[in-house]
Amino acid sequence: MATTYEIAMKQAEAEENGGAPVVAVDNVKRSFGSQKVLDGMSLSVSRGETLAVLGRSGTGKSVLLRLIIGLDQPDSGSIRIHGQDIAGLPLDRMSEIRKKMGFLFQHAALYDSLTVAENVAFPLKRHRRGMSRSERGDRVKQLMAEVGMEGDLDKMPSDISGGMQKRVGLARALALEPEILLLDEPTAGLDPISSGEINDLILKLQRERQMASIVVTHDLHSARTIANRLALLDRGKVAIEGEFEDLQQSDIEFVKEFLKQS
Amino acid sequence: MSSSGYTNVAAVIPPLPGRRSAPISIAENPATGLIDGFFEWFGSLGIFFWKVCKAAVTPPYEWRELVRQLDEVGSKSLPLVVLAGASVGVVLSMETRSIMTQFGAKSLLPISVVYAVIQEMGPIITGLVVSGRVGAGIGAELASMKVTEQIDAIEASAINPYRYLAATRILACMLMLPLLTVAADAGGLLMGWVAQTLVEPISFHQFIDKGFSGATLKDFLPPTLKTAVFGLIIGLVACFQGMRTRGGAEGVGRAATNSVVLASLFVILSDVVLVKIILVVFPN
Asked: What is the ipTM of this complex?
């Protein structure tokens, strides 16, 4: 198991190598009513690194992603993106930071009144105003080809499967060439073959683009496949963080139980 | 406060001195719960309106979406509004005729129909029809987008949902309501004349000439322009109800219903105030 000291050393080493944390979550707390969802959560991710966040349902994994992209605000603690604390930033300034981030929602959240191609073109239309229509069309085709869906440009989201919707969601998340990629349950509800395809796709994108990624998942196999590091949440905190082998060697009862049941 | 803080007023407004910070459930104290709910709703609406205003006046402007909404609100409501206006014109003509005959004032029939349609019935009927069609549409559409995280996806794509979704719809309602009112008025006058001429033939030119005799622009312009306020109310209430929805399909249904009910109610209530203001500012 990697100790806190070792993780801190790794981070220091990454910083020395010019890999300062792109996302740094420090002692974040978030409650909904009387329910404490995050209770002192801390983690960080550097460029080119993929962190998988695992945990039981309701442990605040998705809340963590919403906090990082600013869709929700922590009760206390800080979240820094490229060193900038995002707490309380006005919407327009937060939008500038969000342009560097891509978010894949758990259920893809495609705009159901737009075609698949229009969904992917949506952020481009608004943030790449200098792009001509044909350039935008080419970019959409390129993104759709990257996720293996170049033949489905004119379909509506309701006409494609859940796995395909996730691919389109991923293409949309990549449209602005983000430096940070947040993936909420990318393989949830998919059959093993579709899950494998999505995992391969994420790995390919990581190799090609060197983004800092945080993947929230229940799927331990998927986490092992795509992540450099894993963080297991328990009661609103990181119970253990490290490589899969570190989790396997852990003496913590919750970690053992989680691995046994996964 | 959350960046989309229109649902979370309790979190941003500290409790009043001497009051409990925990929310009081309606089951505990129904009266207090209702009063809190009333003030929370209006407070949230005010914050929402402020965010929409700020978003609407700062670039980038969403012209294409505005044009799409103008079409959605305007041209698609046109047949319904004209039909409603025409029906009101017929009814007014028939009802007024019997009363005027009783008082021997049949010659005043055109003027009473014209004034009733243009000054009150056209605007209010347009407001109520648009509340039903557009209010329900906006409420349900935005609520559905909210529960399927599409609004979050818009925000996550660094697009201001207050600008892209709310400001465009509200502005479209404000711009189209006066134009739809003119169409409803035209339908009402035309069918009011048809209803009269079937009983006692009169040329349309004569009907209009008598109806508008002695009238000035100030008799007709303010009642038509007041519908821009109806548009503001309809768009604002429907966007607000839609974007604060929670709770899946049931929430979507509730948002659509509440949008129509509240928009219609506020249109009628605001009409009372607007009529009074018009009478004060433009006395006869």
From this structure: 0.85
